[in-house]
Structure formats: structure tokens, C-alpha cells
Amino acid sequence: MQKTKMSHMTQTEPPRASYFQRHIFFCLNLRDNGAACCAKLDATGAFERCKAQVKAAGLSGPGQVRVNKAGCLDRCGAGPVVVVYPEAVWYSYVDMADIDEIVTSHLKNGLVVERLLIVPDVGH
After folding, report:
1. Is 21 within the bounds of a domain?
2. Strand-pair partners of 65
3. Total tally of structural domains belonging to the chain
């Protein structure tokens, strides 16, 4: 995977042999015990927004982007979280504007949104 630095973003080039160019996985986990979880932070709304934005931008389908639901991604301390593969870029988001920026910058243009990155050691 190639990376090039561009101001506050990093450009990535995913492998060409994939059925989808990129997958974005949204943690939608709901914890019944009252513990922090992505579902309580409108992860489903963010998932739906991302899916709609990807479709509206003409990015969905083979060779492009797939938006997926996921169970617990074990990064609860940074929630709500999404991860984009094949680059394995982990994001946390606050609102739908952040989701729009991930779609436009990363999923469409291959530019990592550095301000939304989760630091590597934040987990459960």
C-alpha cells in the first residue's frame, strides 16, 4: 500500500485485486449492562448516513465501496468507531458532518482524515 503525506491528510492506495476497493465497518454493538457502546451514540444513524452518502456519490458496488454493519470492534474507549479496510484506518466520529468528511475524503478520494483518527493504544 502506498502512502503520501498531504497537509493534514494521508493519501492511501488500496490493492487492486479486491472485489471492493474499500470496506467501511460500523460498530453497532449494544451492551445490555449499561456499559459504554457505539449503539448508544447513534451508530445506526451514522451507518445509514454513510450508506446514503456512498450511494449518492456513486461509490457503491463492485470495485468501489461497501458499507457494512459490525458487532463490537473492541475499541469501545474511542467510540463510536468505524474502520476502513484494506488500509485498516480507525476513526471515531462525533456527528454526521464527520461521516460526510470520511465519505468524501477517504472513501471517495483516498485521503485519511487525520483529525478523526483513533490513537493506536485506545481500546476497550
Report:
1. yes
2. 22, 60
3. 1
